[in-house]
Amino acid sequence: MTYNDMQAVLMKELRLYHYPVAVKFFFNENELEAFLQNAPEIHTPLKPMTFCQWEIAARMQGQIVYGDVDGLGCGNARFCFGWKDLDDAEIKGHAKYVQDLEQAKRFVVSKPMLEIKPLGIAVAPLGSIDGLYEPDTVHFYCDNMQAYHLAVDYMAATDTHPLRPNITMNSSACGGNVFSFVEQEFNMLPACSGSYNAGKTERGEINVIIPGSKFEATFQRLMDRIEKASSSITRPGDGFPGADICKNCPLIIFKKK
Fold first, then answer.
1. Fewer Cβ within 10 Å of end Cβ, the chain: N or C?
2. Neighbours of 70 (CB within 10 A)
């Protein structure tokens, strides 16, 4: 299957509200140049903004977005991507979350961070990347039960149990993707205070991030379940998300007229 085919299945079977976002960290100049030349239409930030705002265009508008350090106005993301060293401003920016500045410093330096600075980063709808790049991570903005289905399929496909997500202060989208890429592990985390507002997650979306190296196996697990019954785990045989009623309830039953 192409990534475009996979996106179509995921949108239909999981009833996703947003396109899955394929994230790519470019470290190689030739690879970056090939992407810039071959992408049909690339959008770049007009002014510096947050990484989670870059993803808005990809997941909501279906746009391919490319940005570098000059287009990133978020200190948290710059730090996680290795584009900024630790400084007093970054520590003080976390003061409202913690007991004191010493704790703020410890928390900031414990965030996931790229050891090598990327040349740039692309975020695009999963269905738009065929022939452009292989994703380093695939980032889903989804609801609780969609997140659960993705987590269960990942666990089964990769023989991993239990999952141990990585939640940090104020770096859900940026730090969350870096964790999955660096550790090559599944991540599931709530919106941080920054991404809740700036990243437009007021609908209560949950972040699910799957490393690109394990994404196809996770997707194949979904396809195997569809072949056997349906995409729904809660009520196998029903289309996801299935009938949202109490399991085996004898009162809520419908029949053909």
1. C
2. 11
CA 28 centroid distance within chain: 23
The phi and psi torsions of 226 (rounded to 5 degrees) equal: -65, -40
Cα 225 from Cα 104, distance rounded (Å): 45
pLDDT band at residue 239, thresholds of 50, 70 and 90? confident
Q: What strands lie across the sheet with 120-125, from one edge to the other?
A: 42-43, 64-67, 120-125, 21-26, 137-142, 206-211, 187-189
How far from chain centre, in Å, is Cα 240?
A: 21
Report the alpha-carbon distance of residue 190 to residue 255 in Å, rounded: 39
What does pTM read for this prediction?
A: 0.95
Place of tokens 């009520």: 235
Three-class SS state of 54: helix
Nearest to 180 by CA among 192, 190, 191, 172: 172
Helix (H, G, I), strand (E, B) or coil at 38: helix
- What is the dihedral sign for C-alpha 215, 219, 220, 221? positive
Predicted confidence at residue 244, as pLDDT, reads: 67
The whole-number pLDDT of residue 236 equals 82
